[in-house]
């Protein structure tokens, strides 16, 4: 399924919850990527990077769609909450 096929909620509080959930998923994927990439013996399977980045692309695209439905000032605030992007 592509992220554009997912039906988004209409209510603001549900959209905020979606945005925060997607941010947490992205952060978890980022931690997984960094942990794997920095393993002592180094990554040996390049396919894992494709998988992780495909998942990140899905969640980032979906989060972008949610962000388009919310006011810009609110998005600036939400980007400070558990968002991997500021690393």
Description:
With 87 residues, the chain is mostly helical. It has three helices and no strands. It has helices at residues 12-37, 47-68, 72-78. It is elongated.
- The span between the termini is 29 Å
- Return the average pLDDT rounded to an integer: 86
Label the structural class: mainly alpha
How would the global form be characterised?
A: elongated
List the helices and strands and how they pair.
Elements (H helix, E strand, L loop, with lengths): L11 H26 L9 H22 L3 H7 L9
Keywords:
87 residues; mainly alpha; 3 helices; elongated
Offer a concise description of the structure:
With 87 residues, the chain is mainly alpha-helical. The chain has helices spanning 12-37, 47-68, 72-78.
